[in-house]
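Give me a protein, keeping tokens residue-aligned:
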Amino acid sequence: MHLHPNRQAFAALLQSSGDAPVVMANLLRFRDVADYANTPELAPDSPISGAEAYRRYAAHAMPFLAEAGSRVLFDGAGGDTLIGPVDERWHRVLLVEHRSASDFVAFATNEAYLEGLGHRTAALADSRLIPVTAAPRS
């Protein structure tokens, strides 16, 4: 299960991307029932699905994305893997563009944003976050 980046990953992203725009490819697999064990203060009164918990996370996160100058380029349903492990299935795929890696890091470390991050953790059984930058033109 992979849910949170580490400090080394942030540092490597900043070093490799500089001020170039970066698109974060999000691959998301939801829990059947959201798990708020680590953030009971965010838990709803009755159990909800992982997908519903992620909707709550997204509603919380969107104003902070906009404030950072970022935008969702694509939000779609996932599916079975065509190339890769046959048992790897993603429920949702998001592509989020940030003006730069440093803008992404500023968004991702914003204290007010972090207050709602527990919805994302409760929602997800697994995830991948892949930074993508434009390839050099030859």
